[in-house]
Write a structure and sequence with these properties.
The complex is a heterodimer of chains A (243) and B (67). Chain A has nine helices and eight strands. Chain A has 243 residues and is an alpha/beta fold. Chain B has one helix and five strands; from the N terminus they run ββαβββ. The chains are: A alpha/beta (243), B mainly beta (67).
Chain lengths: 243, 67
Amino acid sequence: MQNNIERYQRQLLLKHIGEGGQQKLFDAKILVCGAGGLGSPALTYLAAAGVGNIGLCDFDFVSPSNLNRQILYTPEEIGDQKAYIAKSKLEKFNPDVKITAYSEKLTEDNAGDIFKNYDVVIDAVDNFSSRYLTNAAAYKNSVPLVCGAVCEFEGILTTIVPEENTSCFQCIYPFKPSIELTSKIFGILGAIAGTIGCMQALEAIKLILGLHCLKNKVLIFNGIENTYRVRDVLKKNTCEVCR
Amino acid sequence: MITVKINGQNKEIKDNTTVADFLKDNNINPIEVTVEYNFEIVNPENIADITLTNHDTLEVLRFVGGG
């Protein structure tokens, strides 16, 4: 290990990490698709943990309505491109970490080329079209995918591991909604996005460390009732993506 | 009344309630959710055709926004 070890001292104490686990994190390559309400906390905690190579993919620009939850950005940055601001801040936050920013829109044509450079992808996007796209690209390129979503006071999380032939996002949502559903319609509280974004970072870290993950399961968090519920997701033998 | 396990909790609902009725009664827009009835995902077009019976299991999941 060559990095500033003192920075990681508290997590080096953890029996599930230690020096061996920390080296795995230094060597890891994790991509976060979407640097918004989920992506901001996910990226921050991946960088904090010392994940050595972090990619972030977002083509959007900062707008005032982002600021209740997208904690990487400030009012002075309204109108600026998120990918580059996020990269700059994360590099300052942890200089040990190499950040690669992708400022183009994720498409069927470029997703595979980007995904295959990473050990894990975090789906922190804000719309169904992108979720179907990241799910298919992750499965096609055999890259584990951590899906998270938030809506009002609820959050939901699942982890997909193609190499283990787990169920996928399309097993849960085989019927694409007839209209695009985003937080623009339903609203979202920043702390809910922060909770699920942190849990996505945790799932990605556990995948790198080889620890228990939410494979074939979905976690549902209700911030009003203070409940977490984990239930099985059955793999669909008719699924167009993972069958 | 019948007992249906909804999102992990047993709830009493009226006889002859369809999945569509249940969603409407709970102010849930069918477009926003994926519905699993007895461990099978339901085609949204068919929710009015499924009548809940005693001890059925229903899961209603919303995998919506992010950014």
